[in-house]
Amino acid sequence: MAPGVYRRLGRADGFHLYDMRCLVDHPGWLGPKPESGFRVVLARSGAYLRRVNGRETFVDATSVLLMRPGDELSVAHPLGCGDVFTGLDVTAELLAARADCRLWLDRRGWEGTVGDRVDLRHRALVAACRRGIDGFETAERVHHLMAELLAASGQPGDDVVRAVRRRPATLAAHRRLADQTRAALAAGLFHAGLRDLASTVNSSPHHLSRVFHTVVGQSLTAYRNRMRVRAVLHDLDQGVSSLRTLAHRYGFADQSHLTRVVRQHLGESPSTCVKLLRRDGGPPTRT
């Protein structure tokens, strides 16, 4: 990796998401350097030249690149340094567990451009990680982003991979998987990461996330947050007043994360919810 300012955004379940500002200020070519793992590079600003396995490309803020082990990368910065990108390092084990694993594992590095909506979701994920979200939500959003990036590479995405007629037995199995997942969350499995939750119901993270959304009609993260908000409301009603305690109890990244999720789902802050739920009979007041 070229010298630069590095910031970790998330690390869990076989992936490492990070923010990078390149500090290389050299107009000539640096490299080649062999890649040791699977890496997705999403440009966010700036421009430079990139040579992957001998193929030269101009990179700007619309570009995406997948590197595989053994791929060789060289870079040049004729316009100067300062380009910013998001890096996503993933393990072979994580890729092998995905339904679209062949498209990731069987192909040498590919380059493409990212559509505007996918780019916005990518940037929103970076912003959410900076604000502070838990590893579970980060993992699910990363898996969805990976599926969308296949289309950017010119490869068929999830819809093509799974484009087979679902038999009644398949639909029933999907419903059972969703119900088992709901039961695990109802039992309080809030601290588990996405991979651990998937393991509990004998599934892969990507398959579980996709099936759950299809059956329930919302993402696993959204449903899990709904369950967590209800648990927080119950504890507030029971007199628990420490938001820090509740954040730790229900697996939020921190107190600020809990407050944002509660406000997103209820339109009210936790402190307002306390007033609405208080038992002294006094009129609630808004803050």
TrEMBL record:
What domain of life does the native source organism fall in?
Bacteria
Q: Which UniProt keywords apply?
A: DNA-binding, Transcription, Transcription regulation
Q: Which residues form the HTH araC/xylS-type domain?
A: 175-276
UniProt GO MF annotations: DNA-binding transcription factor activity; sequence-specific DNA binding
Q: List the PROSITE patterns.
A: HTH_ARAC_FAMILY_1, HTH_ARAC_FAMILY_2
Which PANTHER family does the entry mention? Answer: HTH-TYPE TRANSCRIPTIONAL ACTIVATOR RHAS-RELATED
Name this protein carries in UniProt: AraC family transcriptional regulator
Tell me what organism the protein belongs to: Phytohabitans suffuscus
